[in-house]
Write a structure and sequence with these properties.
Blueprint (H helix, E strand, L loop, with lengths): L3 H13 L18 H7 L6 E2 L6 E7 L4 H16 L4 E7 L5 H15 L3 H10 L1 H4 L7 H10 L4 H8 L3 H16 L6 E4 L2 E2 L5 H16 L1
Parallel strand pairs: 2-3
Antiparallel strand pairs: 1-3, 2-4, 4-5
């Protein structure tokens, strides 16, 4: 694992370039989160990686065009791999970067319908510097990388024409506004917010929660 010092430096560089947003505290402190709050953060129809009934839920407010989300992605996958029965990831979409973020969300949701979500997500994260360049974003390249990862575009277009993804994005935007999310990625673990962004901090919080629910 890369050192915390390197990760912090990377986040600082991203912020200095104006390419990612910082995570700010919510109105409620982590200790005040309730089970109902945790459930509200993870709607049943949101994308899930890991066992659906896992006792520990990571909720990530995620913008596919966000460099900091891309930086955290390998660490989140490591956490899931180390806890294959106990931890799941619920993704909440945050289109902070406008059109290119929305196009990536559309593609990801179409991939989910085709059971190609992980493959397409991996491809978009790998090639994010190309399609999500904030100087010259290229939404069409999102499709190129998704198709290379196995997405059927004709089927995707048929699904997107139903308007289901647009409805979902409206809900996601409303959730961001209601919870006070100001930056991505923002993580919650069983309803408690990760206050200090970093791979070590997230891993420690998840490990503590896994131990708690295992008692």
């Amino acid at each position: 694992m890369k050192s915390r010092k390197f990760f912090v430096a990377l986040i600082a560089l991203v912020m200095a370039a104006g390419a990612a947003t910082s995570v700010t505290a919510l109105a409620q402190k982590a200790a005040s989160q309730t089970p109902s709050r945790a459930a509200a953060l993870a709607p049943a129809d949101a994308p899930v990686l890991g066992p659906v009934n896992a006792p520990v839920t990571i909720v990530e407010f995620f913008d596919p065009a966000c460099e900091a989300c891309r930086a955290m992605y390998p660490y989140v996958k490591q956490i899931l791999a180390k806890n294959p029965k106990n931890v799941r990831l619920v993704i909440r979409y945050v289109p902070f970067h406008g059109q290119v973020s929305r196009e990536a969300i559309r593609v990801l949701e179409a991939a989910r319908q085709q059971k190609r979500f992980v493959q397409v997500l991996d491809a978009l994260m790998q090639h994010q510097p190309t399609w999500a360049s904030h100087g010259k974003p290229s939404p069409e390249k999102v499709w190129e990388y998704a198709i290379a990862a196995g997405l059927n575009r004709a089927q995707a277009n048929t699904y997107l024409a139903t308007g289901a993804v647009e409805t979902m994005m409206k809900r996601e935007v409303a959730a961001v506004e209601s919870t006070g999310i100001r930056g991505t990625p923002t993580f919650f673990v069983n309803g408690k917010q990760l206050e200090d962004l970093g791979p070590e901090q997230l891993a420690a919080m998840v490990n503590a929660e896994v131990q708690r629910v295992s008692k």
